[in-house]
Amino acid sequence: MTIESVRTQPAIETARFDLRPLRKSDQGLIELYVGDLRVARMTRSIPHPLPPGAIDAFIARTLGSDREEDVWAMDATKSDGPEVMGVIGLKRMDRNQSEVGYWVAPAYWNTGLASEAVRALVEANPMGQAAMFASVFQDNAASARVLTNCGFAYLGDAEAYSVARGAKVPTWTYSRKLD
After folding, report:
1. Which of 84, 132, 138, 152 has its CA 20 to 30 A from that of 172?
2. Per residue in 120-160, pLDDT tens?
3. In a 3-state reduction of DSSP, which class is residue 168?
4. CATH 3.40.630.30 is the classification of domain 3-177
């Protein structure tokens, strides 16, 4: 692999925190937060209980040059806060589109953190995509509000498998066209 083929991932600043690429040192806080069933149940891919090595492997994938998704930690150290309050990612799709996914640690729920992170990612549009999509489980109205507050439009209902729940769960799907 040549150095030219390695994709860079920019840091993105907000007023309260920065979105920065994950680091191996984030493993402990990420394990703590996603080990919480309340977090895992609202995602498609986080298992509960969390198997040993899962977060180490996740971080290694996010740092790989062949990754399909760019992932950022919500890092508030510039405001004397924690290094990780949540995670947000963009997964590459076809036709110049990407899919947004995020989770926030329960201690930071209802603080506007997720809205600020999604808004910053939309404004930065680091992949230069024409559109972003996102889906949330229908029993997660707070995440649906995050998306609508950030200019995403409702597209329709679907369902997705949740590893933590071990079942298909009804979802709402949203999109946002980008300039």
Report:
1. 84
2. 999 999 999 999 999 999 999 999 999 999 999 999 999 99
3. strand
4. yes
159 pairs with which residues across the strands? Answer: 170
Phi and psi torsions of 39, nearest 5°: -80, -55
Tokens 């200019």, residue?
Answer: 151
Three-state DSSP class for residue 131: strand
Task: Say which amino acid occupies 152.
Answer: F
Domain ranges of the chain: 3-177
pLDDT in tens, 77-90: 999 999 999 999 99
E-assigned strand segments in 40-166: 69-75, 86-93, 97-104, 131-137, 153-162
- Distance CA(33)–CA(23), nearest Å, equals 16
